[in-house]
Design goal:
The complex is a heterodimer of chains A (90) and B (417).
Chain A lengths: L3 E4 L3 E4 L4 E5 L10 H9 L7 E7 L7 E7 L5 E6 H4 L5
Antiparallel strand pairs in A: 1-2, 3-4, 4-5, 5-6
Chain B lengths: L4 H9 L17 E7 L3 H13 L5 E4 L15 E2 L9 H18 L10 E5 L2 H16 L5 E4 H7 L14 E5 L3 E2 L2 H14 L3 E3 L4 E6 L5 E6 L2 E10 L5 H6 L7 E13 L7 E3 L6 E4 L4 E5 L2 E5 L7 H14 L8 E12 L5 E4 L5 E5 L9 H14 L13 H4 L16
Parallel strand pairs in B: 1-2, 1-11, 2-8, 4-13, 11-19
Antiparallel strand pairs in B: 3-7, 4-6, 5-6, 9-10, 10-11, 12-15, 12-16, 12-17, 13-14, 14-15, 18-19
The complex binds flavin-adenine dinucleotide and zinc ion.
């Protein structure tokens, strides 16, 4: 049920410790077109099934995580720190 | 068969053996003027008003399950028009007016009960915000009344007025708000549409939208084969992104699950609909005595019609904090429904970039109260190719144009609207 999330830094923790941002999208370049920004801010693919979402471990390590899961079965496939995925350093 | 006191007596005398089904179960025809995808409240009311008000009767409503199996039969049945913003108030007020005449209009007992909706304020800022909202409503000719603590205590003595963190300071009451028996709404509209020739086809799932070289929709693929149409209307609350994707459209919507709860039947105690301003808890009591309540969504993307235990606990905590006596009650049933959460918390009734494809989506937590107006305005749009004046702000491209209708002022964060 996505009730327990295994944070790569803190281990298995209850859902209540996290706050959820939404789809894990890549932010466009600041100079990207208005169309790209509109798409990033407002439009969502919103698939039924496999879904990558940003979760913030607000009551834990306070890192941003990417939770890869299924939004129908609630299986969680992986939880990773969001920074490396964005090419940023930790 | 028209339902009336006379028909009840007549049927009773023959042992209630001669009632006929309220709607037919036809096989799909090869082609319709209008196909509506989704046999929820909005799809069925759209078909009803198209047939009754706009003279289009060659219509099919395609429902993948049985009618009423979606959110129309899962919601907490609250109706109201206590909105703040220009794009919303006239629309929801139109809906409330339709509710007021609905049972006579479609000859079906939907148990519309105008018991009053009370929104409680727990801080000076919130009281000011509700006063502002009440004023906006009155300026639009909608009933609204501010009650102070004393008046509330007389009306609802069982609330926790002296909560240390969230004392109750005032309440905004809309007396004309209330509850409606939700599945009767689906059945009443279904029967009314069927009587006028609409084919309601259950267990018929749309899996693809077929288009010609010019891009116009020619029909839909279903588990009952291809069905052609001149116009295609999507009313698939919760699955709008999935059906719109079949036509190559991406929507400003995320899908989330909302849970609802019913307690064991108890003696009448909650006479109104009460909304807890310090959380997002709302409660009413059904005519059978069960307390019907709910609170927040589960916050993460979900297409599962069941929710998370953390949210169950949160809902119970909010309930007990508002009504301490609830802690003695027992919950009988709980369930979830998946909803379109839009980017500004407001819905969409609009045409799409595809000429003969129409969209009704983005109803968030609040689309049940909108059922009559949504159907009426969507029917108007489909029949005339132009918006009804009360739904003219509910446009698909409003995000691009910067005309969001953000009641809660929360920005493009669908899980907190
Ligand atoms: C727990 C809960 C509580 C709520 N409480 C309230 C409330 O108190 N007041 C209020 O105003 N609103 C409330 N809402 C919101 C309200 O229920 C919805 O906004 C509204 O019912 C949505 O419109 P609908 O009735 O047409 O949806 P639905 O009944 O969900 O209809 C959509 C239909 O489309 C069908 N469908 C989807 N995909 C396909 C396909 N590919 N082919 C064929 N058919 C398809 C589905 O099976 C479904 O039956 C609540 C919602 C929930 C979940
Ligand atoms: Zn952590």
């Amino acid at each position: 049920m996505a009730s327990l999330i295994t944070c790569p830094h803190c281990g298995t923790r209850p859902k209540e410790e996290f706050s959820i941002r939404g789809t894990a999208l890549t932010r466009p370049h600041p100079a990207a077109s208005e169309e790209d920004w509109h798409r990033y801010v407002y439009l969502r693919d919103n698939p039924k099934g496999r879904y990558q979402e940003y979760w913030h471990h607000a009551a834990g390590c306070r890192r941003w995580l990417v939770v890869d899961r299924d939004n129908v079965t609630h299986d969680v496939f992986s939880v990773t720190d969001a920074a490396p995925a964005r090419g940023a350093s930790e | 068969m028209r339902y009336s006191a006379y028909s009840i007596i007549k049927q009773a005398l023959s042992g209630n053996r001669l009632w006929t089904p309220a709607w037919r179960e036809p096989e799909p025809k090869p082609h319709y003027d209008v196909i509506i995808v989704g046999g929820g409240g909005h799809g069925l009311s759209t078909a009803y008003y198209l047939a009754k008000e706009f003279g289009i009767t060659n219509i099919a409503v395609l429902e993948k399950g049985y009618i009423g199996s979606g959110n129309v039969g899962r919601n907490t049945t609250i109706i109201r028009s206590n909105y703040l913003l220009e794009g919303n108030i006239p629309f929801y007020e139109f809906s409330l007016k339709l509710w007021e005449g609905l049972e006579q209009d479609f000859n079906y007992n939907a148990m519309v009960s105008q018991r009053g909706v009370m929104m409680l304020a727990h801080s000076d800022g919130q009281r000011d915000a509700y006063a502002r909202r009440g004023n906006a409503m009155r300026m639009h000719g909608v009933d609204a009344e501010m009650l102070d603590r004393k008046q509330l205590q007389a009306l609802m003595p069982y609330l926790n007025y002296d909560h240390a963190r969230f004392p109750i300071l005032a309440g905004l009451l809309q007396k004309r708000g209330g509850t409606v028996r939700h599945d009767a709404v689906a059945w009443g509209y279904a029967r009314g549409a069927d009587m006028r020739g609409v084919d309601i086809i259950q267990h018929c799932e749309v899996s693809a939208i077929r288009r010609d070289e010019q891009g116009r929709v020619t029909g839909v693929e279903t588990n009952k084969g291809f069905i052609g149409c001149n116009k295609l209307a999507l009313a698939t609350a919760g699955h709008s992104s999935e059906t719109a994707r079949m036509a190559g459209l991406e929507l400003p919507i995320e899908t989330h699950v909302l849970q609802a709860f019913v307690s064991e039947g108890i003696k009448p105690v909650v006479d109104h609909v009460i909304v807890y301003g310090a959380g997002h808890f709302y409660i009413s009591q059904s005519d059978k005595g069960g307390l019907v309540f709910g609170a927040d969504i589960d916050y993460y993307s979900s297409y599962a019609q069941r929710g998370n235990l953390a949210t169950v606990e949160h809902t119970m905590e909010e309930g007990v904090s508002l009504i301490p006596g609830l802690s003695r009650g027992k919950v009988l049933r709980a369930w979830g429904g998946v909803m379109d959460m839009s980017m500004d918390g407001s819905p969409i009734i609009d045409r799409t970039p595809i000429d003969n494809l129409y969209l009704n989506a983005g109803w968030c937590y609040g689309g049940f109260k909108a059922t009559p107006a949504s159907g009426f305005c969507f029917a108007h749009l489909i029949a005339k190719n132009e918006s009804h004046h009360v739904s003219r702000f509910l446009r698909l491209d409003r995000f691009e144009r910067g005309h969001m209708i953000d009641e809660a002022g929360k920005g493009p964060q669908p899980n907190i609207h």
